[in-house]
Amino acid sequence: MEAVLAAHRNTTKAFEAYNVATGDYITVEEIARLAVECVGLAPGSVVFEFTGGARGWKGDVPVVRLNTDRIRDLGWRCLLSTAEALRRSMQAMLTDARRLYGDAA
User: Fold this and answer.
1) pTM of the prediction?
2) Which of 2 and 27 is assigned the larger pLDDT?
3) Does domain 2-104 have CATH number 1.10.10?
4) How far apart are alpha carbons 72 and 19 in whole angstroms?
């Protein structure tokens, strides 16, 4: 939301597209390990099976890096790493799921 407000406040253009991103990246395996952590499972209690080889699956992009120069030039800075942003999102989704479905979620 802060990026949208920064763009609104700091430009007079009627329309402009901005990449809003953390500036770092995280691997699929790191995301999976983070999900295991967030649901409260012990590290190592889940085995990950990699079926797509070193590249991943067909059409996979191993690393996505967005150029955020345009939004940063307007004064916006991301305050979270990708891992922390994902952690917060996962925890919020778990909270919502538990509210809806109880401890089974």
Assistant:
1) 0.76
2) 2
3) no
4) 9
